[in-house]
Amino acid sequence: MRESLEVLKGWFLGQAAETITAHQLETKLEAARRENHWAPATVNHHHTVVSLSFRLAIAKDKVKENPARKIRRVPEDNNRVRYLSAEEEKKLREAIRSKPEWAEHEPELDMAIHTGLRRTDMYQRLVWENVDLSLRVATIPRSKNDEPVHIPLNPSAMRALAAFKTRGDGTGRVVRNAAGETLVVNAHWFPDALRAAGIANFHWHDLRHTFASRLRQSGAPLGHIAELMGHKGLSMTRRYAHLSIANLHEAVSRISTDTPIAPEPMRETRADGYLN
């Protein structure tokens, strides 16, 4: 919420709260959605923060009206599952490596695909003090659900961390660009790289879906995926249930009186090394 408040302060810096109109707020939200490629849930989150701020101000007799109440929330499709195919990932990496100013961000792509961290968690909450390289575990003490998330680090994630390690002194925020600067958003390179790769209908948050989907396709139980994703229950995780169809074929074949047909094994896609 703190990050959202900072965004809102930037929008209306120097303007008295009682003069902020619903039209102004709606215009700011829509502009931020387009510029930062926000998902509907992100737009609604900022809407909620604005509304809460005005409700608190009304309770303290600072303002009389809440302009956020006049704005409709953006419909959310929480069941949408869009993830990178192996071919799309190959095209995206080729596009990223085609320009030096994009190539330096490839470790960010790997961290997202191989940890499933939310964008805010990865860019702002992930700090070196909560990364145990010997145990290969990264921890977000307080994520979106106000609970800690512990992420085991696979070789691809460790390789991304090694790249970030060279960009700072090993303290503070992990994710940095080649100049050693911390990052908050990736709108300055990711959407353009997607367009160059010819990948449509894809957002940064879909890399989180990619992480979960590949776990499920490899046979990981929903309970393990829920824990890794930081879900409080299985209701959000069940959207990936159908992706383990190969394993389900094996299960139902056990009750067949005919000779079962073994499903084709999953193929593992290995990422290339980073460009200097």
Describe this structure in words.
- This protein has 276 residues and is mainly alpha-helical.
- Helices cover 46% and strands 4% of the residues.
- The chain has 2 domains: 2-70, no CATH class; 86-251, Orthogonal Bundle (hpI Integrase, Chain A).
- The two termini are 36 Å apart.
- Order of SSEs: HHHHHHHEEEHHHHH
List the uncertain runs.
Answer: none
CATH class of the largest domain: Mainly Alpha
Task: Please identify which CATH superfamily of the largest domain we are dealing with.
Answer: Intergrase catalytic core
**Anisotropy-based shape:** globular
Q: List the total number of helices.
A: 12
Total count of strands: 3
Mean pLDDT: 84
Structural class: mainly alpha
Helix share bin? 40-55%
User: What CATH architecture of the largest domain would you give?
Assistant: Orthogonal Bundle
Compute the number of structural domains. Answer: 2
Rg, alpha carbons: 21 Å
Q: For the report, how would you describe the main beta sheet?
A: 3 strands, antiparallel
Q: Enter the CATH topology name of the largest domain.
A: hpI Integrase, Chain A
